[in-house]
Amino acid sequence: MSKTLILTGVLIIVFFLADAIGLGYLLHQQKWVILSFFVAYSFLFNRIIELGFKEKRKNFIPFYLATVALRLILSIIFIGIELYRGLEQQELFVANFFVLYLFYTIFEIWNLNSNLRQNSEK
């Protein structure tokens, strides 16, 4: 979880820098809400993965696949609720969400892969 918090800290700095150098128009006003969603989901993801490791190692794959399905379902619900509320610049919101979705997904897979590699060497 600490690596995810570091990633989030880097993204916060990037958001502030984008505003400072005049690239704030590329970010939706709800960028903090989107980032909060991914931090909350990452916390949930880590807890579910820890359960998969704690019980039995053979249960890890079903737990991981459950988190992937949960991420997709929660993301669709989140986007649906936000769009239903009548946001301005809906395309920018969806684009920002999709970029952060891919960013967090790639980071979590990379982080998980490095952890699995360490565990397989034991």
Description:
This protein is mostly helical. Helix content is 82%, strand content 0%. The chain is built from four helices and no strands. The protein has helices at residues 2-20, 31-55, 60-84, 90-120. Helix 1 runs antiparallel to helix 2. The chain is globular, with a radius of gyration of 16 Å. The two termini are 22 Å apart. The relative contact order is 0.13.
Protein topology:
Blueprint: H1 2-20, H2 31-55, H3 60-84, H4 90-120
Record keyword descriptors for this entry.
mainly alpha; 122 residues; 82% helix; single chain; 4 helices; globular
Number of strands: 0
Share of helical residues: over 70%
Please tell me the overall pLDDT.
Answer: 82
Total DSSP helices: 4
| Secondary-structure class | mainly alpha
Order of helices and strands: HHHH
Main sheet, how many strands, which sense, barrel?
none
- Which residue ranges are poorly predicted, with pLDDT under 50 across at least 5 consecutive positions? none
Instruction: From the alpha carbons, calculate the radius of gyration and give it in angstroms.
Output: 16 Å
Instruction: Choose one word for the global shape.
Output: globular
Question: Strand-residue fraction?
Answer: under 5%
Terminal CA distance? 22 Å
